[in-house]
Structure formats: structure tokens, C-alpha cells
Amino acid sequence: MRIQVKRTGGFAGIERHAEVDVSGRDDAAEWQALAEQALSDGRDTPPIGVPDGFSYQITVDGRTVYCADPRLTQAQRKLISWVLKEGS
């Protein structure tokens, strides 16, 4: 399973992108469950965010959803954090 996160917006407007391939990892089942929840909570179109807030595009194995601060679900927030921290 390949998970990609693209973050845009924020005060400086700097875009950040990270990707993690969880295939073969010991914690792959946890990543998969979290990714499925984050996808089910996402939108098919980019939502209207708040000024200087971040907007996110989450793609898991070709399926893309969108979300934005401050209305991230707990699953989205955790998945985004993990991918941006561990991804390349």
C-alpha cells in the first residue's frame, strides 16, 4: 500500500509532499486501517479552508480525497502526521 500526502497553504504557502510504502512493514495493518478511515472521512473535492490554514490531498493506492484544517478527523490528522514524518 502506497500512501501519499500533499500539504498546501499555511502562512508561508510552502507545499510539502511525502510518500510511504507500507508493504512488508511490521505495522502495515495499522497503517492500512488508519488510511481506510482517513479516506472514508475525506471529500472528493477540495474543501474551503481557513485563511493561513493547511489543505491536504491524501492518496492511497490511486484513490484521492481532500481535507483541510481545522476540520481534520483524528484519523486524518494521525495519518498526515505519520506520512509527513516518515515519508520521503
Overview of this protein structure:
The protein is α+β, with helices and mostly antiparallel strands and about 90 residues long. It has a 4-stranded antiparallel β-sheet with strand order 2-1-3-4, with helices on one face. The two termini are about 15 Å apart. It has one domain. It is built from 2 helices and 4 strands; from the N terminus they run E-E-H-E-E-H. This is Metalloprotease. It holds the Pfam family Emfourin.
| Alpha carbon gyration radius | 12 Å
Largest sheet: 4 strands, antiparallel
Total strands: the figure is: 4
Strand content: 25-35%
Terminal residue distance: 15 Å
Summed over residues and divided by their number, the pLDDT gives a mean of 94
Per DSSP, the total helix count is 2
Helix content: 25-40%
Structural class: alpha+beta
- Which stretches are low in confidence, meaning pLDDT under 50 for 5 or more residues running? none
Helix-strand pattern? EEHEEH
Protein name: Metalloprotease
InterPro entries: Emfourin (IPR049457)
Organism: Streptomyces sulfonofaciens
Blueprint of the fold:
Blueprint: E1 2-9, E2 16-21, H1 28-41, E3 54-60, E4 63-68, H2 74-86
Helix pairs in contact: 1-2
Give the tags.
Emfourin, Metalloprotease, alpha+beta, 4-stranded antiparallel β-sheet, 88 residues, 31% strand
